Structures are given as C-alpha cells and as structure tokens.
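Assess this:
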Amino acid sequence: MSKVYADENLKVFTLNSNPALAEEIAKVIGVELGKCSVARFSDGEVQINIEESIRGCDVFIIQSTSAPVNEHIMELLIMIDALKRASAKTINIVMPYYGYARQDRKARAREPITSKLVANLLETAGATRIITLDLHAPQIQGFFDIPIDHLVGVPILGEYFKSKSLEDVVIVSPDHGGVTRARKLAERLKAPIAIIDKRRPRPNVAEVMNIVGQVDGKTAILIDDMIDTAGTITLAANALIESGAKEVYACCTHPVLSGPAIERIQNSNIKELVVTNSIELPEEKKIDKVTELSVAPLMGEAIIRVHEEQSVSTLFD
C-alpha cells in the first residue's frame, strides 16, 4: 500500500516541464498532485487555472526551466502570480534545473547577467523559497533575497558508480571550474582526480589541451554539472583514451543534450553516460548508452523537511 502524507496544508503542483518527475516526487511524499490546467490562447499566451483551494497552504511548484526555456519560465511566473492571488501561505519553487544559469556574470562589455534577472522575476512574482539542484555557479544563490536550498547530485551519482564496483578509477574534471565537484565524487569513491586543461575559443566550442594527473591504464569517470552539446565531454573522452585510459564513463546532473549531443555521445569513446531526470528526456534521447537516475527521493525529502520546518542540510551529504 502506498504511503499517504497526512497534512492537507501541503500542496504539490506541476507545470509542463517535467510532469513525470513531479508524479514521482508526489508518490515519494505520499500526496496527490494538485489540480491545475495550463492552456494556451490562440495567440500563444499562457492561461493557468488552479482547480482547488490553496488558501493558507504551503504550495510547492515543480518546474525545471529547461527547453523551451522561456515558455517554462513564463508558465512558472504566471503560476506564482495565480497562487499569490489565491492566498497561498508560502510559494516554494522546486526547480531541479535552473535555466540561464550560465549567464551568471559579465564576461565581456555590455553583457547581461540573465540568471540574476531570472532570480528577480521569481521574487517579484511572489516566490517565497527556491529548492534547486546543482546550480552551474553556486554564487547564483546570492542573487536571491529569499531562502534557497541548493541540493547536490553527487551522492546519487556516487552511489550508482559504487554499485558498479569499477577498478582503478580516476575521477576527471573536464575543466578547472569543476574540480570541487570532481573532488566530492572522488572522496565518495576513494579515487584520485585528474583535470583536463582546455581552452574554449568561443561558446559551445571546446578545444582540449592536456591532462593534469595520471589516467594511464585507469577507468576514467568524467563528471560535470550539465552536458549541453556534448562537445566538451566527448573531446575529453577522446583525450583520455589517447592518454591510455582503459575505458571512459561520464556523468552529469543535468542532461540538456541539445543539438548534436546524442549523436556525439553515441559515436564517442564514452562507454556509459549517467544522468539524472532533473530534465525530462524525450524518447529519442534515451539511447542505450544513457542511464537515468531519479532525483525524486531527494526532492521529495527536501519538500517534506521544508514543510515541517526541519533541517535540509543533512541532504547535502
């Protein structure tokens, strides 16, 4: 018999970005998903209707701002406004994947900081808390003036690789920015780390330079927060094999997998790509090389802890 969460003041809603994950999270908590409809007017404007009372409730909306990013952000903002006007006690955004996170600073003159703009929009609309997972840049937490619970995916990925009992493992960061993440996975698997020193001549184009660390004869596990076009990760896999690695696995929290990504992974030296379901993968992207792990138990536990005013920090381990 499935468990039932007793407190009726906890409401969980989903929008269109990842309904399958939302169903899983609701099952973990033991609640039914809230009733709401998301429709489009003939000119494309979003229409949202909440079909049950949420007055005085702690409401959690599950919505990754993955592709189509702008559609999903507008759905979320309109839903927040609807909840605020319907007298929700708190409006908690559960955003497994935070879109625009890579636009987190001014890298050149006259550039916007779009991830800060998204934070402003969510707050202005009426969000009272954010629960998210593996932000591209942890400092994005500072863009918010409301509480933000920043969960991490490494424990989920680490448990999976532990269960495989691989030998002679080395954890590889595809760039200098991901060293902290690689070290966390390395600590879990009691393995050394290596770093790929790469130069990126322009966005979405990576050029591998050299490898810092010992990979010869080892099983390499590449780890990143997200894989977009898969250029970086497949070039890194090639460089590792050329440097004598026995085999190459790759893992990430967010499978953006846009453009030529799936074709590149299919034709690459990567033996297996391990991802989470923070972004919903369409059927055509679920190739044999891709293994999907669920973040629903982590997200469900975070929602319960926030609602019951318990500590969330234990989930970071």
Residues 23 and 120 are 28 Å apart (CA to CA). DSSP finds eight helices and 14 strands in the chain.
